[in-house]
Design a protein that fits this description.
Elements lengths: L17 E2 L6 E3 L7 E5 L9 E10 L4 H13 L5 E10 L2 E12 L3 E14 L2 E12 H17 L1 E2 L1
Antiparallel strand pairs: 1-9, 2-3, 3-4, 4-8, 5-6, 6-7, 7-8
């Protein structure tokens, strides 16, 4: 005897729908592993500031604390990283976390990243939603507020 499993289905629910609001000079991007991404229009050859939304599925019981530990560990493992700040805040209408940091990059001098995460209960699974904004250090002087605004705009659609 056999049976069929389907995605999405009762035992494998669809990933959470996420929306972000971006300024007019931002456009959708296709990024491997992302469910949603956007980049700012820039001169050809310049680094393109971007926002990437990724969703990872875990078994029930995966917690925000576990996700925070994993993200912090990943950030701290980056050579030359400088943490700029972290705290808990609302992400996607639920308790979340943010960490911001910079690190040296051979191509552009320095990259700055802002990561926000939330853990979303989803039937028999738990989905980790990560919203990452990236700019060069120089671009961040003008765009960091824009990156944060886009991240703050994220909602479950």
């Amino acid at each position: 005897m056999t049976h069929t499993l389907t995605f999405p289905g009762e035992s494998a629910p669809a990933l959470p729908a996420v929306s972000i609001t971006v300024p007019d000079d931002w456009a959708p991007l296709s990024v491997s592993g992302a469910v949603l991404a956007a980049g700012k229009a820039v001169e050809q050859g310049a680094f393109r500031p971007n926002i990437v939304v990724a969703v990872s599925r875990f078994a029930a019981g995966y917690t925000l604390e576990t996700a925070i530990s994993a993200v912090v560990e990943r950030v701290e493992s980056i050579a030359g990283v400088e943490e700029l700040g972290r705290d808990t805040l609302e992400v996607l209408g639920t308790e979340g976390f943010r960490i911001e940091f910079s690190y040296p990059d051979a191509r552009v001098g320095a990259l700055m990243q802002a990561v926000r995460i939330a853990v979303v209960e989803n039937g028999p699974a738990v989905d980790l939603v990560q919203i990452t904004g990236t700019t060069t250090g120089q671009q961040a002087t003008e765009l960091w507020g824009e990156i944060r605004d886009i991240q703050s705009s994220a909602t479950r659609a």
